Amino acid sequence: MPTPTPTRAADVPKPPTSLVRRARKIDRVLAETYPDAKAELDFTNAFELLVVTVLSAQTTDKRVNAVSPTLFATYPDAAAMAAGDRTTLEEMLKPVGFFRAKTESLLKLSGALCERFGGEVPAKLDDLVTLPGVGRKTANVVLGNAFGVPGITVDTHFGRLVRRFGWTDETDPVKVEHAIGALFPKRDWTMLSHHLIWHGRRCCHARKPACGACPVARWCPAFGEGPTGYDEAAKLLRTEGRA
Ligand code: SF4
Fold first, then answer.
1. 62 included as an active-site residue
2. What is the rounded CA–CA span in Å between residue 217 and residue 87?
3. Rounded to two decimals, what is the model's pTM?
4. What is the pLDDT of residue 239?
5. Are both 101 and 157 inside the same structural domain?
6. What is the pLDDT of residue 169?
7. Direct distance between the N- and C-terminal alpha carbons of the chain, in angstroms, rounded to an integer
8. Known active-site residue 155
9. Residue ranges of the chain whose pLDDT lies below 50
10. CATH number of the domain that 227 lies in?
């Protein structure tokens, strides 16, 4: 049974070897299962990734990907967005929901980038989390995928899966991040996040996981939370992420 985890990474006790081995085995199998795993939001640079990650709250990646080409053609960088017209931005963001709040967030975020970071996205966690609307999860997504700095993204899928796998009992995202960080070498953190998020979106669903068709079922203590027969489970599999 996993023990409670301190809030500082440096204080996390060394996890048992058996847990480390099982966790790494599961990740290897997921890597083979999802060789194309990556961020499902479209972006071409750190600014775009930061913006689309903020926009992806409470909506689907697909919806964000549908609005982002027009958004970045109009506002290609923080300076252009900070000087942008609120009504125009709101109109563009309508399809992603909460468009007034998200417009406000993007104007504040791009303004802060211009005022404090010369219009560039900073490549440090401590700086990123000082930006309006940017929490640790968003910061780690940007670090891992735009700057190649290893980061663990604790979203709803990641948290659910690591608890089902028995890797940790923690629910606090920072504690989860530290507990899982202790099980894997740093270089694996970003891809580990993608593997778990893809598995959560396609197979290990929150309400009815497809246990009978799950490639890591034999190492999962939560096997049986969903249907265990292959035929029934296979119907629950999704080939794509959030629609
Ligand atoms: S066996 Fe079931 S609960 Fe465990 S990872 Fe697979 S789908 Fe999720």
1. no
2. 50
3. 0.87
4. 82
5. no
6. 96
7. 36
8. yes
9. 242-243
10. 1.10.1670.10
